[in-house]
Design goal:
Radius of gyration: 18 Å
Number of helices: 9
Largest sheet: 8 strands, mixed, barrel
Distance between the termini: 33 Å
Shape: globular
Number of domains: 1
CATH class: Alpha Beta
Order of helices and strands: HEEHHEHHEHEHEHEHE
CATH superfamily: EAL domain
CATH topology: TIM Barrel
Number of strands: 8
């Protein structure tokens, strides 16, 4: 099993960026940063190793910082869009997080309102959503003008109560609901429910769009933002 700290020192990691589009007009709203390993370690396995080695905060915070520096250091100011970055609940509740966030806010002060933290819905970490330190971290992110998204909604632990309590800026519906959306009436009803709720609350993004038929039905249901291989695959910045 590779040591996470050693992989960080060896600069084994880089990020690719997948576009998120808004409709109508298929305009790029922003990009989601996705970590990759030069040694071809699958991201899920990478974070699993980090968790087993008690280095998840180090791995997650490194990934966040690298994604932000890569994105805002590469893009011209006229081309900048919103950047979505995944973050684990355990990172939010770490005693080191507030200091990390404050440093990040100083270093990237002009871009705070263009940085969206996607809270990862690890079932293992579901209990952390109820902790005081989790809510303190959310409050600090708000005060520093960072944006918040719930990731994979419908697949993990983000209940409607969490959505109501925190009021995220964006809700990303899990790819389960986009798969065969055009032929599955129950999925259409759930997507329509989210569309109605988010109309005046949060930006709603449907993940995992992979064919034209499902996209057409999503648009007919009122989906205004989407992500998936049909729209654009993850790629390094050019």
């Amino acid at each position: 099993m590779p040591k996470i700290e050693q992989l960080i020192i060896q600069n084994d990691f880089y990020h690719v960026f997948q576009p998120i589009y808004s409709f109508p007009g298929k305009r790029v709203l922003g990009y989601e940063a996705l970590i990759r390993s030069k040694s071809n370690m699958v991201p899920d396995m990478l974070f699993q190793h980090a968790m087993e080695q008690n280095k998840l905060f180090e791995m997650d915070s490194f990934s966040i910082l690298q994604a932000i520096s890569t994105y805002f250091g590469t893009q011209r100011s006229s081309e900048l869009r919103v950047l979505f970055i995944n973050i684990f609940p355990s990172t939010l509740v770490s005693p080191l997080f507030i200091g990390f966030l404050e440093t990040l806010a100083i270093q990237y002060e002009p871009y705070r309102t263009q940085i969206v933290f996607e809270i990862n819905e690890s079932i293992i970490e579901g209990v952390l959503w109820k902790s005081a330190s989790f809510r303190d971290a959310i409050r600090m992110m708000r005060e520093l003008n960072f944006l918040i998204a719930f990731d994979d909604v419908g697949e993990g632990t983000a209940s409607f109560r969490n959505i109501l309590d925190i009021s995220p800026d964006f809700i990303k519906i899990d790819r389960f609901f986009s798969a065969d959306l055009c032929t599955t009436e129950k999925k259409q009803k759930v997507v329509a429910l989210f569309v109605e709720y988010c109309r005046d609350e949060s930006g709603l993004i449907l993940e995992g769009i992979e064919n034209e038929e499902d996209l057409a039905v999503a648009l007919s249901l009122g989906i205004k933002m989407g992500q998936g291989y049909l729209l654009g695959k993850p790629n390094p910045l050019t």
